[in-house]
Structures are given as structure tokens and as C-alpha cells.
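Instructor's aside before we start: the two examples that follow are unrelated to each other. I chose them only because their records fit on one page, so don't look for a connection. First example below.
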Amino acid sequence: MPTFLCFTMEFIDLKSQQALIKDKIDARIQTVLAHGRYVLGPEVQEVEEVLAGRTGVKHCITTSSGTDSLLIALMALGVGHGDEVITVPYTWISTAEAIALLGAKPVFVDICEDTWNMNPGLLESAITKKTKAIMPVGIYGQPADMTSINRIANEHGIPVIEDAAQCYGAYHEGKPSGGLSEIGSTSFFPSKPLGCYGDGGALFTDDDELAEKMTQIRVHGQSAKHHHPVLGINGRFDSIQAAILLEKIAIFDEEIEQRNKVAQSYTKALESSSLKVQAPKVGAGNTSVWAQYTILSETPEELQGNLKAQGIPSVSYYSVPLHLQPVFTGLGYKNGDFPVTEKVSAQCLSLPMNPYLKKEEIETVAEALMN
């Protein structure tokens, strides 16, 4: 009789984290229910102050989602019809989606062979007179080479929006992600390293004028009651989500440390593995919060099947890159235009990654990688 394995290992474990801080979260939520200011209440201001301090910027503006954060940032920079915004094709669709929603054109550049983030060496050739902004993405937990990207952008007078949805909490050249350019953006979707229990996001900047404009755009373009100087959206953050986030921030650094320990265990196993896989690499000057631990394999489906047979979940993210998505057919890209992206999309496989993986679970994954 065949034996069927039960999946007990969590790919992303939110239950263990909640059990750890449940009493504190419950108390925070009860405070919100008591004061009744459910949208943009005092917890929102409190979490913005905490996040701004962590990020080393003057202003943090929370939003209703990471997607809305990108949209608001682009709107604040005046991006619109006929403009171009440079980004990467290896990311979640929100990055390019926000650009297209404003009538602008996403212009893609390929990613690096090692970090899988924007390749700065390809950036200059993508800049035109229509380029209104550059939006690099910090994939899988580490920032892009923001030093090189900022240098090129500054030479051309182009603002940079850092999409830090996956790498908030990481550092580049000693500076925190989110505070590495004119505007930083992140997401608090539950599966992110720092997430709430619903949708949410945040914007970061040192620019007073941009901060004021983004704050207005977040509330229908309103600067005062019944006064709307700019066009905006409903991008407000909920007080309950802010309350939850405050308690999660309190344990965030410990969780990052544990994520790195999990990643080190996986990497050590791969160093002595007979599997033909490429391990993830943290770029020079970077730290990572390991939103995912992603490997490349020439036979990802076979590897995924082997892991599944041992009760180990795995996910292939972004298996269809943005330049090959049907919605972006009109951009004129074709298969072969971005070879590194296409290779990574075809070969990537993400392993279980969360701070609450048990020692025996980490060992099970490590043993599976060594065989």
C-alpha cells in the first residue's frame, strides 16, 4: 500500500508568529475598537513615526497597499501619458502595472546573473528623453545596486523610486532599504517579511514637497477638508492594520536574524550538494531579509516533485516574466529580449522560508538539497 506524506511544513508561517504576540495584538486591536478611528487613526501616525525612524528618513506615508504606494509615488512625480518609466521584467506585476495605469510606458532592462536585480550596466542605454523615473526592485529580500543606479539617474536628472516591497529591513552600503532614493516604497502584504493582516504599504522620502503631495494624493488629493488641489486616490491605511504592524515591528529584527540563519543552513547544504543548482547570492554591500530563498535548477519541476514527495513545499515565482505577459503585448517585447530574466523565470524555485521553521524542518530541507 502506498504511503502518502502529509504537508506539515509551512512555506510561510504566520500562525506561529501570531501565537507569539497574540495577546499584544489583541490589546492593540481593542484600543482601536474603543476609540473608533478606524482609518488614519492614532496608530497610523505612530507606525509612520516608527517606520520613518527605522528607515532614516524624514517622512513615512502609509498607504492601502504596496501597489497603491507605487501608484502614488508615480503620481507625485507627475508621471502620465507619453512618459516612460524604466523597471525590470522579473518582478510581480504591480511594478509595471502602476506605470501602465497612469498611461506611461514600462521600459524593461534585464537583471543581473547573480542577484537577479536590475543590471545597472544596461540602464544607460534604456534612458530616453521620455524617461520620467527609474524603478528598481529589491527581489527576494535584498536591494538592487542602488549606488550605481542612483549615480546614473543623477547624471540624467531622473528620480528613482525604490520598490522595496520584498527587501524592507535590508541594507545597502550601510543604509536601510526604503531610504535609498528620492522615494522608497514597500508593501505590508501578509506574506512579506514585515506584513500586516491585510493589504497595506508605505512610502518614504526626505523631500518635504514630495511628502506633502503624496499625503494629499493618498486622501483623494485633499489638502484640507473639501479642498482638493491635486488628483488623488483612496489610498488610506487602516488603524487596525497599523496596530498589528506596531507589534510585528517589535520582533522584526529578531525575525530577520532567524531568516538569515535559515538561509545559511540552506546555503551550507547546497555547498556539499550533488544537485546542479545555483544558490542565491547576496550582492556586495547588501544584506538580505530573505523574503524568499530561491534557487535555480535546470529541472525545477523534477526538483519540486522530489521535494513534494518529502513533504517540502516549494513555489516557482514569476515563471512568466512581465515582458511576456499578454497584458503587455503592445509593448513589442518578445522571447529572447531579456535572456537572464527568461532563464531565471524558467529555472527558479523558492524553498520554505520563515523565521519559525523548526530545527528538524530546516534539517529536512537541507538533507533534501544534499541528495
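Example two begins here.
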Amino acid sequence: MPAHLPNATRLAISLGIAVAAAVGVAWLPLSSGEAALPLEAHRLASVLAAVVVLWVSETLPLPVTALAGASACVITGVGPAREVFRPFAEPLIFLFIGSFMLAEAIRVHRLDRRVAYAVLAQPWVGEHPKRIMAAIAIVCGVISGVISNTATTAMMFAIVTGILAAIEQAHDGARDSKLNPRFATGMLLVVAFASSIGGLATPIGTPPNLIGLAFIEKQLEIDITFFSWCLLGVPLTLAMLLVVVAVALTLFPAGVSRLHGVTDYVRSQREALGGWTTGQKSAAAAFAITIALWVAPGVLALVLGKEHPWCQILSSRVPEGVAALIGAVALFILPGGNGNRVLSWEQASKIDWGVVLLYGGGMALGELSFSTGLADGLGRSITGFIPEGGGITLIAAAALVAAITSEFTSNTASANMVVPVGLALATAVGADPLPAALAATFAASLGFMMPVSTPCNAIVYGSGRVPLADMVRAGAMLDVAGAACVTVGMLAVGRIWFP
């Protein structure tokens, strides 16, 4: 929708389209192949049509649309309030809350900056353009695996901007310098793209991961642990980070063999951070405790076997959500310096509660689509459009659709829309639904082409140093490469990670 339209006009148009979509879907002769769907499924289809329109247009805040959709399900009789709003109290909700508080403590005490400058100061990085680009990608990928992609981009954007200023100042006085000014575009795009990709490494790296995990747990009764996810997510992240660096260096070469000024700038910034503060040590300790509790069940299962009593006790009594809350509570106990704790409630309350509400609303709609039979009917009605090829074709289709959808709406909304469809389609054609669901989950974070695709893209585009044509060209290459990487990775899921 044109951005120049007044907000009231945009809202009126979007609401009108949403109502039209809801009414139109209500009259469609939806069927599951053998019999017509229940009335509740028809009503849910109407609600979903309106929600999708509002999610894509984003004229209402995404969490508000999710809450409105859940409320509409109760009002229209799709389900009772207790059933509709139950996902808002799922254990994964508290994994969101706990991990968000840990991420806020890391940000507040600038622990993320300390990690970033520590990597950039490594001797192997030096002032080599390729190594600097790779180091930036690694830093963004690692940090965005534990804090939000947007926060990572904002932090690294400031760091890279300073590095670019130092580079340009050092090369400005050299008449024979062949520094390519487009190298700056490449570095900023690496910040945005690598920050989005790094979220794939861990379950808490980005909201779509937890959304996909919740659908998989509810519909397939498969519990993917933190450790198991990382076994798949980390290699996939590394492969895609390599692609990001390769694309950036190909499209935006430095033109010189050495970038003068980087070493001095990084050293000065690192010295400005000073020694480790009490808050940084305590935040690192709380996060280490949480990581240990997340990884311990998987490690013990490898060493002692899944049936060992210790593994059973740790998995059942300290699940990921509880581990995150233990780490979050520790933030209010451990010292933060100057007589304060690591995190105050005022600081903790600034976490992204909108994502929590969006997750609850999206999960409510997703669960209802299965309980009413709508997902099954939708899956059966479009199986005829899927070409022969078994699970491989379905996985590739799920990844591609999720990647395309994420270009036009948020990654979280994309996961809420595509993952249930992938599950339904796989069930309808008799394929393993786990790889299809995971493919849609991972690919929901692959929106790279447009400034509106992700906040990460919007941040670097706002610098004025990233032309839209360059973002589209590099983003399109990464979308295709990312969908291919996800498809290949998912082919091994049923055989290696989750037998």
C-alpha cells in the first residue's frame, strides 16, 4: 500500500480489504475431499483471511491484529475463550520472556560490544578486507543467536559506521588509493543479512524459531531440545554466513588489499570499554547458567543415553522455559555494580512484549486451524498442485513460500502463516511433516530483498549508503541460496538429528 497515503486512509482501506476477504472466504465451498468442513472451520477461515490481510498491510500493529484475531474466534463461535487463549500461557511463552530479559541485560551492560570488538581485534583479522568482512559476519551471527536480530543490527551498525569512517579518513589523503566506495554498501548489507541469519543458530535467536517449535510440539508431539536445534541450526547458519560474505565480496569488492585505519580504531574503542565491569561479569554468569541448563540434557543424552534417570529428571523438571526463567531471576539477584542488581524491573519491562502477544495470537489461530479441520481441508485441497517428487519437492516448496512471504510481512507473521500449511500439506500427501515444518520455520527468516522485509534491512537502508537496487540484487541471491541451503539441510533431519 502506498506509504504517502494518510494513516486513516491506509487503515480504512486495509480494514475494507480485510472485511471483503473474510466475507469472500466465508462463501467459498471449502471441503476436505470427502466431506464439507464444519461450520467452525468456515468461520475460522474468514477470520484468518482478515488477519492475513492486516498482517501483510501492517496498518495495525502485528500484536494487535493477533489479539483481534483471537478475540474474533471467540466472538464467532470458533472455540471457547479458554481454548482460544490457552496458547498465551504455553511454556514457550516463558522461554520468550526469560531469554528476552537475558538479552536486555547483555545489551544494557554492553557485553555485546565487548564481544564484537574482541573478535575484530583478533590478529587473524588485521586490515584485510575479506577477513574484516568475515569477522563482521561472524560477530553478527554469534550475537544475534542470543539477542534480537534488530538489536544486533543496531549495535553493529554503529560499530561498522565507525570503522568505515576510519577507513575513509585513512584513505582520503592517499591519492593512489583505489578503495571502492561501494565496499561500504557491502559491509552494511553484511551487518543486516548476517544478523538475520544468526538468529537461526539457536531456538531463541529469532521468534519464528519458537513459533515453529511450538507447532511441531503440538501437532507432531516431537520435542526438539535446545541442543538438538543447535546441531542443525549452527551448521546451517555457518553455511549461509559463508554465502553472505561471498556475495558481498563479489558484488562489492574493496579494490584494495589493505584497509588502513581499522586496527587503530578497533583498539581505541576496545580500550574505551575498559576492564570488565561487575554488571558484565554477572550478566555473563547468568547467561552461562542458562546455556548450561539448555545444553545439559542433550549432552547427557549423548553420554549416558536418553533413558538415563538424570536425563529424564533434567528434561522433565528443567525444560528450556524454566531454564530461561532461572537465568532471568538470577539477573535480579546478582550484583550489577554501584549497589544495583544486574537488571532492574524498569529495564526488564522494556523487552518486546509485542512479540510475546503476537506469538500467543498466532499460535491460537494455528492450533484452531488443526482442531477445526481447516488445516487438513486446506492441505487436501491444494495437494493436486504439488508436482511429483515426494518430500523433496514439498520441503523446497515450503522453504520458497516462507522466504517469499517474509519479503512482504514480518518473519513472525510469515512463520505463523506458513508453518501450519506446511504441516497440513505434508500430512495430506503422506510425507514426513517434520522437515517441511522446519523448512518453513528456517526460511521465514530469509527476507533479504526489501527494506521493509526486516527491521535489520530497514536500519542499514536508512543510512543512505545502501541503494535499493543493490539490496534487491544481493537479497535475491541470498533468498535463492538460503532456500537451497534450508532444503538440503532438511533432507538430513529425519535421518540424523531427529530419527
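The chain has a mean pLDDT of 83.
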